[in-house]
Amino acid sequence: MTTMLEGYMEDAKGHLIPVAKVKDVDKLRDELTRGVVRGAKDLQTAMKSFRAATLSDIQAFADLSAEKYGAKRGGLKGNLTLASFDGRYKVQVQISERLQFDERLQAAKALIDECLTEWTQDSKDEIKAIINQAFDMDKEGRVNTGAILGLRKLDIEDPRWREAMEAIADSLQVVGSKKLLRVYERREDGVYTPIALDLAAL
Q1: Which residues are registered as beta bridge partners of 192?
Q2: String of DSSP letters for the chain
Q3: How many other β-carbons are positioned within 10 Å of the β-carbon of residue 115?
Q4: Residue 192: pLDDT band by 50, 70, 90 thresholds?
Q5: Per-residue pLDDT tens digits for 25-68
Q6: Of 75, 102, 148, 188, which residue has the fewest beta carbons closer than 10 angstroms?
Q7: Which residues contact 79 (CB under 8 A, 6 or more apart)?
Q8: Of 73 and 65, more confident
């Protein structure tokens, strides 16, 4: 239990309550909760250390492997998979990039709207629905990157559409990346399952 002053405990409203006035069950609940949190924070620290050490080891191994062929990697820039000799275990490092669009996306939308205005005369409502849904924003004001990029797969010959797709490609910016570390074990049926490091998944 943490006390602000000797003989007092702070409640959820920030009030100092004399320890003598706090029920035993409340003291025990407080002690148990704080103990669990301390353990969780210790585990989190250990997991961060494990992740950092593992990524460092994988980087060193990748560099060593590259040197065998006279190549220099200069850091993990792409996805990488390592496997044990017997194939039972697998370790993956995946680079997850955070993407966003700049102002050129609005130019693309204007060109697309021109196409839609003309096409709706030919009753292509389903295409209009797909496109408008792609440009819908979430609560944070962000568009669905996957849906926007998916528009580029539509085989449409209209020059305005092609120009819009080029504007979309040009507007896409990488604003950050994160290394994801995943560890797998192969089951008897040959399927690899992740070794869960999330308490909720255990």
Answers
A1: 186
A2: ---SSTTEEE-TTS-EEEGGGS-HHHHHHHHHHHHHHHHHHHHHHHHHHHHHHHHHHHHHHHHHHHHTTT----S--S-EEEE-TTSSEEEEEEEEEEEEE-THHHHHHHHHHHHHHHHGGGT-HHHHHHHHHHT-B-TTS-B-HHHHHHGGGS----HHHHHHHHHHHHHEEEEEEEEEEEEEEE-TTS-EEE---SGGG-
A3: 19
A4: very high
A5: 999 999 999 999 999 999 999 999 999 999 999 988 888 888 87
A6: 188
A7: 92, 93, 94, 95
A8: 65
The answer to whether the beta carbons of residues 66 and 73 sit under 8 Å apart is yes
What single-letter amino acid sits at 159?
P
Q: Which two tokens stand for residue 200?
A: 């909720």
Residue with token string 């209209």: 158
pTM over 0.70: no
- Helix 159-171 and helix 104-119, axial crossing angle in degrees, nearest 10: 160
Q: How far is CA 42 from CA 49, 56, 166, in A?
A: 11, 21, 49
